[in-house]
Amino acid sequence: MAAHQQSLPTRSTGSTLNGDDAVPDIDTTETSGLLQERLQAYKHACGYLENYITATEKVQHAHAKEYEKVLKRAIISIKALGASQVYLRTFAPILRQGPKMDMYRSQLTISKGIANSHLETEKTIKGSVLPVLERLHTEIKNKSKELSKGAVKGSKEVDKARNVTQKHIELLGQHTAGVSASGGKVDATNDPYILQRGINYRLHKQVLEENNNRHDLIEIQNSFAKFEAHIIQTFQQALQTFYQSVGGQHERQKAMYGDIVNTAQKIPPDFEFKGFVHRNSQLLVDPSAPKRDVSHISFPNQNHPSTQPLIAGTLERKSRLTGYSSRYYVVTPSKFLHEFKDDDDLRKDPTPELSLYLPDCTIGAVNGEKFNIKGKDASKGKIGSALAVSHELAFKAHSPADAEKWFNIIKEVAGGSATYTDSVSSPTSPVESRDVSGQQQPPQYQEKDVAPVQTQGLPQGHGAGSAGPMSAGGQAQQPYNTPVSGGDPQSAGTGFAPMSGVERKPGQY
């Protein structure tokens, strides 16, 4: 049974068919499609060349218009200069000279000539180059239509004949298999003999169509060689005409610009400048004049009293990290103590690193060559000054005499609104000095509503600003002088807050 099935007729498909197959597995439209694509490519190439030359023609037209604008601008500028004082002083002497006037005249003439040359090039391109390419474009389109009507149509007829033959070959295969399976009982119309003769008839028609189509394709292929040569020759002819037009225009333009250069080169290099210097010697800079010096320059309010420091020099200020370091300090009539790195005004902008408004500061007494000032830094502006915290700054002069000089000027500038202390070191509270038992005393707090300091009825020498209360042994205690803010009406008259060590008990004052 297996051997019987293997002997059944079958149809081979795929790419294994050779040229003797009844229905070759070859697409007849491939050749015509390939030729059609080639014509389409040439059509695009011709279109690209047309677009390029058309754009060049438009550019030539635009350049002609622009050079006409250049010509008009030059004429208008010369007329406008003739009515101005600048022209009378600068340009009139130049244009009166022969070589310079020739140069300007040649520029006007050549600008007009260049505009005309661009117009001529535009006309040549539009009349001699673009029509050739447009005709070629039309020929390529006609060739493409001819291919579509001839070879493409013939290829479709071949495909149609092959499909008919293929159907009858398949029908023959079905009925030959049926004859073998049913013992030879088939219809008269489906007799394999009749089907085979029908295939021969249809195969003959198919071969005729294939040969006719092959003949048409060969003729088209042979004509393509001549047609492509015609396309290339037309491209060459159009580009040659384009080159002669544009290249000639460039050569003429180059020669025109050469005339401008030759006219300009006839002018001596120093001819005009010497006359210019002679005519305007009173306005030009004298190279022999000395340079300016800042030390010889004056300006309004330069020596105003408010700009002169009351005292200036170097002091040393103590820092927690580096100890004493030298800085340049100035006390101004505006009642500020400014700190600078140095006294150089030329290397960089002299911005103070620290500024103390002395009337708001606490001034400590002089201790040898040292003195203290407690206050807020005002160099950061209003917002920075409002957020600043008071710091006690320790200063050190070169000698006790210098320290006394600085202190006296600072004290004079601060006036009565500042608070002064008798010692540089921090004062000790009398309450803390009574702690003889070694026990820790409760904290002392000052209430907002402070009672006025009693200054009447005290013994001589115990007024406001004098020594504090007496200790148990009859010795006067060192006062604890705390600066009083300007807004406290209770203590504004004394300049000091109430001292600790009062007779009240802790928590009752």
> How many beta-strand elements?
8
Strands in their spatial order, largest beta sheet? 4-3-2-1-7-6-5-8
Q: Decide which structural class fits the backbone.
A: alpha+beta
State the distance separating the first and last CA atoms. 132 Å
Broad shape: elongated
* Percentage beta strand: 5-15%
Give the averaged pLDDT, no decimals.
Answer: 74
Order of helices and strands: HHHHHHEEEEEEHEHEH
Report the biggest beta sheet as strand number plus sense, adding barrel if it closes.
8 strands, mixed
Number of helices: 9
Helix content: 40-55%
What's the gyration radius in Å?
57 Å
Note poorly predicted spans: 1-18, 82-89, 423-509
Short description:
The protein is an alpha+beta fold and 509 residues long. It contains 9 helices and 8 strands. The chain has helices at residues 2-6, 29-82, 85-95, 98-182, 192-265, 271-279, 381-387, 400-414, 430-433, and strands at residues 311-319, 323-331, 336-340, 354-357, 362-363, 370-375, 391-396, 419-420.
Task: Outline the structure in words.
This protein has 509 residues and is α+β, with helices and mostly antiparallel strands. The chain is 52% helix and 8% strand. The chain is built from nine helices and eight strands. Strands 4-3-2-1-7-6-5-8 form an eight-stranded mixed sheet, covered by helices on one side. Helix 4 runs antiparallel to helix 5.
